[in-house]
Amino acid sequence: MLRLLRRRFGLLALVLVAASAPAAPRTEPPPRNLHEAIRRGFYSTDSKPLPGGPERVREFVERGADLEARDADGRTPYLLAASLGDAATMRLLAGRGARRDVTDTNGDTAFDLALAGRRGYALRLLIDEGWPLTSKHRFQFACYKIARAAGWLLPFLIGASFLAGRFLPRFYAHPPAIGRQPSGADQLPTLEPIKCGPCGGSVPLRLHGMRCPSCGTPATAPAEWKKTITLREKTAELLARAERLWERARLVSAAPVRLSLTLLALVLLVLVGIGLFSRLGDSLFAVRLSTAFVGASAFLGGLSLVAALLGYAFYLGEVQSILPVPVAAPAETTTTAQCTTCAGGIEHRGRALSTLCGYCGTENYRAALTGRELGVAHTEKGAAKVSLYEAMRQIVALRDKACTGLATAALVVGGLAVGALLVL
What we know:
With 424 residues, the chain is mainly alpha-helical. It is built from 14 helices and 8 strands.
């Protein structure tokens, strides 16, 4: 056939036949030693073994290959596997007695080589097997665990934040608005103060058990006042509740608490940043797609926690600016006084800061109050015009806004997390 083609078509026919013939398969020669088997059996870019690679490595090991042999860079098979990130081969060699504490020509250990190449699997194997870390690397690994915890916490943080912002306002009572006249009295009928007959002193108004505080003479209120007195006693209960909340709010919104939250947020930001962006943390997060997503979640979770702490510190600062402050702390005694609006008798009991006048409904305070945000001057006429009850209502309104912002922030962070998942 070839002779016929040569006679008829010459050399060109032979060239065409040779070009159309299937090429003989090129076979790669087998590795000559254990180093070459390790190097050719693992794809370090994707951190995964190549087909047949682990089998060839195991074959050399079982045939008694020298586990402490050195290549041109002075690396033993264990060091070479660490530099490639081949954790399975490292585990195999260590199990067959290969030394882990050797160094190459440059003095680099297995940990140094894995860290330089950002081989996360090899690094995690060395750490899990008790590699002696320096103080710097111990700190970076601790930061990595904090960042990882923030990443796993992110879904729960998003869900809890959304639920709290959406449903929390339904679980606490909103205080009703109480109308006030310019003088400070409420909008109920103003009653004429009752004076004691024998001594002429002012008698505090009560529904039952009225008695002159000066001489102890019993007194009675007109029957038609019963409805007004009952309503004012309910208002007095609201004022007492507002005072209890005021004391609690002053404690939790104090400057040391706000400063501690701010410092905690900054420390958390630094720790998560080191856990994510240090060479050790970056290597451990970049081993595969799932851990890369955990790294992205750690970034979002860390920022979310920092923003939550800073936001809460800012919220407490706003609460502190709304709360009035007494000029002097009240003594733990029961004292009598006259209402600043109608001059009717009132009685301050125990350590209560405020008392509601039963005659006109004015809030009376033992000590003058200063209000920073409300801008009320307490020196005029010797009476405070700041209201604890109104301050409580403003704080509840501020809390409602904070809950709305919390739910919105949860949706935004959740959208970013979903976007990161789609991108990765």
